[in-house]
Amino acid sequence: MYGKINRMEQSPGVCEVLQPSAPKERMTALENKCAIKMENITKRFGSVVANNAINMELREGEILSLLGENGSGKTTLMNMLSGIYFPDEGQIYIHDKPVTIASPKDAFDLGIGMIHQHFKLVDLFTATENIILGLEGKLDLNNARKKVKDICDRYGFDIDPDMKIYDMSVSQKQTVEIVKVLYRGADILILDEPTAVLTPQETDKLFAVMRNMKADGKSLIIITHKLHEVLDVSDRVAVLRKGEYIGDVQTKDADQQSLTDMMVGHSVTLNINRPEPINVTPRLKLDGLTVFDELGVKRLDNVSFTINAGEVLGVAGVAGSGQRELLESIAGLYPIQSGSVTFFPPEENGQSLELVGKDPMDIRKAGIAMSFVPEDRLGMGLVGSMGMTGNMMLRSWRKGKGAFLNRKDPEALAQRIWQELEVVTPSTSFPVRRMSGGNVQKVLVGREIAQQPSVLMTAYAVRGLDINTSYTIYNLLTEQKMKGVAVVYVGEDLDVLLELCDRIVVLCGGQVSGVVDARKTNKLEVGALMTRVEGGAKENA
User: Fold this and answer.
1) In terms of Cα–Cα distance, which of 208, 240, 337 is closest to 43?
2) Which of 15, 155, 245, 468 sits 20 to 30 Å CA-CA off 311?
3) What is the CA radius of gyration of the chain?
4) pTM of the model
């Protein structure tokens, strides 16, 4: 069972210079003093009760994980602490003093800083310039740079104060956001899905920094759906369910199964069903695929492998290894320098089709659909001002049918996805931009599955989803596989890749470093292939 698989071993050398030296040793919260106390906090949006009479505490010198299914009210609750929302009822106490938090400035003045999923940085500015942006009074850039460096040295951040934001990786941008709130004197930090786009190595490094901040007396709240991370870094876990506070548990007394059951309210089987492939036939063949980005940087280099119908093909690799470019190239959304992508139709005696140079709409008419879940879900995936029905119509209006019920009416499709994936929304016309990040993700993934494709490509399909919904998505992908669909799954969790997929293509630096049988390989082998290139484009399995 996935719930009992051991965590990926921490990358060697990541935390060697950081303190405390034993990262899994949990220090006792400072004399059990309360950094935050919330009493009967209630927040409504029209007829929807997002938080109902929440009572919760955060202790000084503690890392608290906040768990709950998508739409359970986690981010709304934290937004009230950070001054984005104001509670309709209840009282917040900071260090045992009643306070009013009516704006983010009030939160900063009280020592509260929140690091959101979507960064608020100016790309043309340096790290230091972004950190001091918006501060009052006369600013001395040299002194600010020195203070930023001191903060980085104190907690173990690895960042150049003079580096431009547009030159940074995702993890470096996140570091800037964290340093920004520390620079402003925050001693209470809230991190919303901080590891969503980080590699395992970057996650280890972030957790080491978090432990350093805790050792310095900081109090931290982390919102995440990754239960192995919860068990790794937190001292205590608080659980919300449908807007209500269920309770808390010491992390040392919990495991993935117990936390999942607590979130959902009943026993959940953490097991991915992986039947043997049936009638496996080639559906797509990539040969020598090479692509460059707009700056002339090579993103894919002589990539060759076959995607088969009736199987789930996993794609593994460190972030930035070419996963996104691979799927976008196949879908006709990314210019291809050289190579070929040949599509073999499911119909008998059907003529093969060369996809390179084809218009994306022509590719979609051939039955090839790509479900791409980007970091900017609303910017690239959905129209935020439209409801579920409108967003279903964007994909289904030409074909006039969807996968769940094969109905022409997009409203019927939206209703089915609403029920099947348990999307938390008042109605199918409710704007998706007002949904939680996880529910937005459900709508996006559900819409793509609904197209009845012959090839279904998913990139980070469960990013931001709670564990129960994640398993729903895994089962949906398996259902597509058993219907003869060629399923491509790009994922971050090696445990899931090994349990869900039949074969795994490993990318490193834009090249194929190996193609392995998921049933016969292990994380160590896949991890080794992720960090080195062995001969480029040849299939090993």
Assistant:
1) 240
2) 468
3) 24
4) 0.68
